């Protein structure tokens, strides 16, 4: 399917939607055209300029990273003709300033800590969409796929080069309060960019996600994700796996009590699939309880990705920055697994400044030793409908116990500090 997308069908999408992008006549995205020409000219332009400065002090490196980068996006959604529309989006990442004083993963500057924002220009999304069946949306092409809280399937929007999927997807909402999603994924365009050997991943993936939101107390989601990695790819075919799970997520407020109570309970089982080795075996647990009152939200969280000393529960297509701390120490689950107990809080102050933070305590699932702790702080302000300014800080403090040093000498056993300043303009 990916070869088909790259050659014949992709060319049709790129040419057809590309002509539309040159016309740049902004109209409502729900515009129904009477002719193909009207559909091509009656679409909507979208775009983004996102500048970010990222500083990293990694105990394993001799130098500090200073990454100054700009992400530029330009997209065009056509109008509908016979319930068919198309979307094309370009994405460009460039270093701002004289030097790229960071390891982008492809620039060879290995004396610096990694900031996985390599320079490059690519087609970020290019898909056709059909809405001719009531309650159903079909998409074919390169597209964003976001499921639930992105713990398993997401777009990694935090990185300047986001993660997109070459896929055929179906979303159906015909049943009351129910959303059914199916996706066949033939390739994943990862955050490392097309110039990196880690950038594109060929695979045969099946995504199933069914969500029911008919209860006042919360929503129930059942999912199954089946990943068959091709030989010779950035992820070994011996790591092919299947993950099946249930998630309940919601909130409840009684008439006599002011707080709104928040809660999440989730469990998933991972095992080998296709050419996956028998060592692929693990469990996932996610529990949360919180309160929301007067614009103050506090949550106590407990998350476990199991590990047995050989295999750690894997979530390679998650928006990983959102989990296990913003310092990104645990982008890949350690072989001993991870238990993350953390307290998070958020509030709004001074006419719209959103403050949030979290404190994490990390330990291993196997052998039960401590990895370390982490503090996360963030302040964000929406200046107007287009501009958001964000400042963010993460400090990971490693525990130097014997097991951690011996088993994670260049990873969880080393300190790491990060700071970000970001300006995001969207239209």
Please render the helix and strand layout as text.
Blueprint (H helix, E strand, L loop, with lengths): L1 H22 L12 H6 L2 E15 L6 E13 L6 E12 L24 E11 L5 E8 L20 E9 L5 E12 L10 E16 L2 E12 L11 E12 L7 E13 L8 E13 L2 E10 L32 E12 L3 E11 L6 E13 L4 E12 L3 H6 L8 E11 L1
Antiparallel strand pairs: 1-2, 1-18, 2-3, 3-4, 4-5, 5-6, 6-7, 7-8, 8-9, 9-10, 10-11, 11-12, 12-13, 13-14, 14-15, 15-16, 16-17, 17-18
Written account of the structure:
β15 and β16 form a beta hairpin. Helices cover 8% and strands 50% of the residues. With 427 residues, it is mostly beta strands. The N terminus is likely disordered. The longest helix has 22 residues. It starts with a helix and ends with a strand. 36% of the residues are buried.
Short note summarizing the structure:
Helix content is 8%, strand content 50%. It has three helices and 18 strands. The longest helix has 22 residues.
Radius of gyration based on Cα positions: 22 Å
Low-confidence sequence ranges: 1-30
Give a short account of the largest sheet: 18 strands, antiparallel, barrel
**SSE topology string:** HHEEEEEEEEEEEEEEEEEHE
Using the alpha-carbon principal axes, give the shape.
Answer: globular
- SS-derived structural category: mainly beta
Share of residues in strands: over 45%
Give me the number of helical elements. 3
| Portion of residues within helices | under 10%
What does the average pLDDT come to?
92
Number of strands: 18
Distance between the termini: 33 Å
């Amino acid at each position: 399917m990916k070869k088909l997308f790259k050659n014949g069908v992709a060319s049709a999408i790129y040419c057809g939607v590309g002509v539309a992008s040159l016309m740049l006549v902004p109209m409502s995205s729900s515009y129904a055209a009477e002719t193909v020409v009207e559909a091509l000219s009656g679409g909507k332009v979208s775009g983004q300029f996102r500048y970010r400065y990222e500083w990293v002090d990694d105990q394993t490196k001799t130098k500090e990273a200073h990454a100054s980068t700009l992400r530029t996006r330009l997209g065009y959604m056509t109008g509908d003709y016979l319930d068919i529309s198309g979307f094309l989006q370009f994405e460009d990442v460039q270093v701002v300033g004289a030097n790229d004083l960071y390891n982008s993963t492809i620039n060879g500057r290995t004396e610096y800590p990694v900031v996985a924002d390599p320079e490059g220009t690519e087609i970020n999304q290019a898909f056709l969409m059909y809405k001719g069946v009531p309650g159903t949306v079909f998409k074919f092409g390169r597209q964003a796929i976001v499921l639930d809280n992105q713990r398993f399937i997401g777009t990694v929007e935090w990185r300047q080069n986001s993660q997109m999927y070459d896929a055929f997807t179906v979303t159906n909402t015909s049943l009351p309060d129910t959303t059914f999603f199916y996706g066949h994924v033939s390739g994943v365009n990862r955050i490392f960019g097309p110039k990196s050997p880690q950038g594109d991943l060929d695979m045969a993936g099946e995504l199933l996600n069914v969500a029911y939101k008919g209860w006042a107390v919360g929503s129930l989601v059942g999912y199954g994700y089946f990943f068959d990695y091709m030989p010779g790819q950035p992820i070994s075919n011996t790591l092919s796996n299947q993950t099946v799970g249930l998630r309940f997520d919601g909130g409840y407020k009684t008439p006599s009590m002011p707080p709104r109570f928040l809660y999440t309970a989730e469990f998933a089982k991972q095992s080998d699939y296709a050419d996956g080795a028998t060592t692929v075996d693990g469990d996932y647990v996610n529990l949360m309880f919180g309160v929301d009152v007067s614009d103050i939200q506090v949550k106590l969280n407990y998350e476990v990705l199991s590990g047995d000393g050989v295999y750690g529960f894997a979530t390679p297509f998650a928006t990983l920055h959102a989990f296990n701390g913003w310092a990104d120490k645990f982008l890949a689950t350690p072989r001993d697994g991870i238990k993350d107990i953390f307290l998070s809080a958020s509030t709004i102050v001074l006419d719209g400044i959103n403050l949030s933070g979290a404190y994490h305590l990390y330990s291993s699932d196997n052998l039960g030793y401590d990895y370390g702790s982490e503090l996360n702080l963030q302040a964000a302000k929406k200046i107007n409908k287009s501009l958001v300014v964000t400042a963010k800080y993460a400090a990971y403090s490693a525990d130097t116990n014997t097991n951690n040093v011996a088993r994670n000498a260049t990873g969880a056993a080393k300190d790491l500090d990060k700071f970000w300043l970001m300006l995001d303009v969207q239209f």
